[in-house]
Design a protein that fits this description.
Layout lengths: L6 H21 L1 H28 L3 H50 L2 E4 L2 E4 L18 H11 L2 H27 L6 H40 L4 H11 L5 H17 L8 H32 L3 H14 L2 H25 L6 H19 L1
Antiparallel strand pairs: 1-2
Helix pairs in contact: 2-3, 2-5, 3-8, 6-7, 6-9, 6-11, 7-8, 8-9, 9-10, 10-11
Length: about 375
């Protein structure tokens, strides 16, 4: 029989494992983002795979391939349409902005001020080439953006392949992870897993509710001000709202381009003024969502204070980027579940008081039944 480790040896090994885990997570932090995206995609697609698997009576592997390829095809098709739309419209949009700025500069050239007997001409404040935004707004920026995006093809492949294998073998992977739990704590690990799963389910339900509300508000407001394709922009906002800041900005940019070239169908104003109204409407709805709607809805679904939700999203956007902001709320909810369990174990409290009370009530009712 193998000799048991002493308490000090177990503590030392545990501390070493903890240090190694933190060090490994730090050096592989670039991989955490794609893996988190893959896990989130697999979690979202899994109910659809399960539904099709039950109805179609096909093997799960074939269902995963079909659902995966259809979802990937839809994503690629949407990306091609959006890229083509922005690539075709951006050059004309930039050229018109440059023309407006050039006209404004020509008008400002004739203005001068007399300060303390010194005449100052505004044309001295502008570059000689007569274009302020030449170095900032250029059509080639769009292609630079596409080139930078193509540099991440390797990470995209990692996300796609990891998502496929998570969908295919998640049950096996979950059971394998459960086997690592000590025998006396197997039921605790399964309960923790169930609670964390509920947290992510509530987060997805809250995000779906939020997307529908924001999409409805955007589509209705765009329809009232006469933006062509108002309902389409409402759908786009609802779909891309999950990307937090990036998604709404892209949709707003498309709305600005349409407003500048098509104008309003109900307001008798210039296209330039209509652009300002569109920006104000879309920006106001996004401000309402980020400051009030998102904190309130996520607080209701995950039982986290609205101020904590707001600060967590802002801080994660500033420190970790869009991906961190995307998953920070369910991560906080999951951490709260695990932290509560550890707290109860440290202070010798019951981590499942509700379930214990329900089991006690069931036992008492069963024992009282024969006596009745």
């Amino acid at each position: 029989m193998s000799k048991e480790w002493s308490r000090s040896t177990r503590y030392l090994v545990f501390i070493l494992i903890l240090i190694f885990s933190v060090w490994f997570l730090y050096i592989s932090r670039a991989l955490l983002g794609p893996l988190a995206i893959a896990a989130l995609l697999a979690y979202i697609l899994n109910p659809l795979v399960t539904f099709v698997n039950k109805r179609a009576k096909l093997e799960r592997s074939w269902v995963i391939v079909i659902v995966y390829l259809l979802s990937l095809s839809g994503l690629i098709l949407a990306s091609v349409i959006l890229v083509q739309f922005y690539a075709d419209q951006m050059q004309a949009f930039v050229q018109q902005i440059q023309a407006i700025v050039s006209q404004l500069q020509e008008q400002l050239y004739a203005i001068s001020f007399n300060i303390l007997g010194m005449e100052i001409h505004l044309n001295t404040l502008f570059p000689e080439n007569g274009s302020i935004i030449t170095d900032f707004v250029r059509p080639d920026l769009v292609f630079q953006l596409l080139q930078a995006t193509s540099a991440n093809v390797g990470w995209i492949l990692v996300v796609l392949i990891t998502t496929f294998y998570l969908l295919k073998d998640w049950d096996k992977l979950r059971n394998w992870l459960f086997k690592w739990a000590p025998p006396d704590y197997g039921s605790d690990v399964r309960r923790l897993y169930a609670q964390v799963t509920r947290v992510w389910n509530r987060y997805l339900h809250g995000q779906l509710r939020l997307s529908l509300i924001v999409g409805f508000l955007t589509g209705t407001a765009a329809l009232l001000i006469g933006l062509p394709g108002a309902l389409i922009f409402g759908v786009f906002v609802a779909v891309f709202d999950v990307l937090l800041t990036v998604g709404p900005v892209l949709v707003t940019l498309g709305a600005v381009i349409v407003a500048l070239f098509a104008g309003s169908t109900v307001l008798p104003i210039s296209n330039e003024l209509f652009v300002l109204i569109v920006v104000a409407v879309f920006g106001g709805i996004q401000a309402l969502e980020n400051i009030w709607l998102r904190p309130r809805i996520m607080s209701h679904h995950l039982k986290i204070h609205p101020a904590v939700v707001f600060v967590a999203i802002v801080a994660s956007l500033a420190l970790g980027g869009i991906l961190m902001a995307l998953i920070i709320i369910p991560v906080l909810g999951s951490a709260a579940v695990i932290g509560r369990y550890l707290y109860c174990k440290l202070f010798k409290l019951d981590p499942w008081p509700e379930e214990t009370a329900a089991e006690a009530a069931t036992t008492s009712s069963e024992s009282a039944a024969p006596a009745a």
